[in-house]
Amino acid sequence: METREQWLRLARAVLGGRDLPEFTTYDGIRIAPLYDSGDLPDRTPRLVRPVQRWDVRQRHAHPDPAVNREAILADLASGVTSIWLDRHESLDVQLAGVPLGRVPIAVPAAAGRALLDLAAAEGVALPGGDLGGDPHAPDIDLVRRCLAEQPAVRAVLVDATPYHDAGGADADELGCALAHAAAALRALTGAGVPIEDAFGQIAFRYAATDDQFLTIAKLRAARRLWARVAEACDISPSSAGSAGPVAQFQHAVTSSAMMTARDPWVNMLRTTVACFAAGAGGADAITVQPFDACLGLPDAFARRIARNTQSLLLEEAGVARVLDPAGGSPYVERLTEDLARTAWAWFQELEGGASAADRLAATRGRRDADIAHRRFPITGVSEFPNLAERLPVRPAGHGLAQAEDGHLPRVRFAEPYERLRAMADALPARPVVFLATIGPVAQHTARASFAANLFQAGGLATVTSGPGTDPEAIAEAYADSGTPVACLCSSDALYAEHAEAVATALRKAGAERIWLAGRGDFPGVDGTVNLASDALAVLRATFEDLGVRP
């Protein structure tokens, strides 16, 4: 059996002697190229969801209660097992015909009493759900009513998704969630609620992203952190584990920040990976956001795809049949441990008065830089954009699940590119960048494709001069394009021979800005575009050159 060093030596040989790449998460956690049993933490407690199906929890946000009711009944007849209501108005209308005794329901805080009243009127015990209560100012009467009438329902919700939606990383989200949960415990026990009852009254909501392993590790780390809080409160670890009154109930929602309005069908892939990760990570309930959620209120087809994503993972893949499927993996166990430690340290800083907004802004800034430089690629937006796409039209409304928090911004990773695309689309004719393709096809195709992809990410069309090296012929083709912006595309060898002459001819033909795809300093060239470029800065400069302004 090969040792770690033998594996690394073999891998380096494949890479021509180069070192294997390492990565660092936005939390500062190192991701190594290889893990083995030596990376397993000394202590790996198994805090997992019992073997059972997770709740397939569909969100409903239509402003018309009657429309919501019809959608809810259709979902329940087609595989959904749990309901998440975004609106509190006319709860009796929205839930008419819903078997309350069999369907866990999550509601906004304003609808908590109404839900309990409905259950009391029907004389049923609710099988679960949460009432969305503020962890910093919980409704103590409602908590006591849940404990007395509906012990399966949690009155308080710790919603960590606003920290994710503000650009936070996974440990940022976990630490902030823990701070809110600690505040809830203090408020509840301060009002006389027994500590184990207080634990059982708190539900947690987390974002699940298409970074599969980080999502799995986040949910596993969250349970470990909650068990650590239980231990600090003198509650035995056994009752803080995978079952019992103080187990952490986790509702995972596929990330709003990762969703795109452009090429929205790619969202199906993103949410499938996120759903798998949430299930493998042990979430108790999962909401898959419909692929068209950025465009407005999802239609019936999009909701069907969202719920069927979960049905396939449950019924075909059997993800919920395996107890902690990632458990024992050296990579996942190390990542879980590192996330838990980083989040606990951040939680302690928050308890000491640290500013969440400052930390989130710093994390957001690092990710924004990666998005701009396309180190954080967004398929269909910053990579492989489709300028000819026809977007589906949806009614206006709160399609994305985004919790209200007036102190934090909301971001979607694709927005900077999508804003440029919208500006270009709004013009009578799409702006054009001319690609001066120097030499034969084999010499210029790679860099012409790179440049076209970059400019199209901002909604700019590209035209090419075709193969050839004659500066005058290239300039003549440029003149026909009617654009002030050109980009040279070829190999390094042909740049050395032809770049200056072609740039001079383009300038004489009226080019105001001349880019070069690649690297190097050539007379007449204003700047370069390459893998290290700030693509958003290049696009904004090009928009200025083209006279396109907001």
Write structural notes for this entry:
This protein is an alpha/beta fold and 550 residues long. Helix content is 43%, strand content 12%. The protein contains 18 helices and 15 strands. It has an 8-stranded parallel β-barrel, surrounded by 7 helices. Strands 12-11-13-14-15 form a 5-stranded parallel sheet, sandwiched between helices. A two-stranded antiparallel sheet has the order 1-2. It is globular, with a radius of gyration of 27 Å. The protein starts with a helix and ends in a 5-residue tail after the last helix.
Spatial ordering of strands, largest sheet: 3-4-5-6-7-8-9-10
Strand coverage percent = 5-15%
Poorly predicted tracts of residues: 239-243
Largest sheet: 8 strands, parallel, barrel
Instruction: Give the integer mean of the pLDDT values.
Output: 93
The value of Rg in angstroms is: 27 Å
Overall 3D shape: globular
DSSP strand tally: 15
Structural class: alpha/beta
User: What is the count of helical runs?
Assistant: 18
Distance between the termini: 62 Å
Helix content: 40-55%
Assembly annotation: single chain
Offer a quick outline of the entry.
This protein has helices at 4-14, 65-76, 91-94, 112-122, 140-149, 161-165, 170-190, 195-200, 212-232, 266-281, 300-316, 330-351, 356-372, 415-425, 441-456, 471-481, 492-508, 535-545; strands at 23-24, 30-31, 55-60, 82-85, 105-106, 129-133, 154-159, 202-208, 249-254, 285-287, 432-437, 461-464, 485-489, 513-517, 527-529.
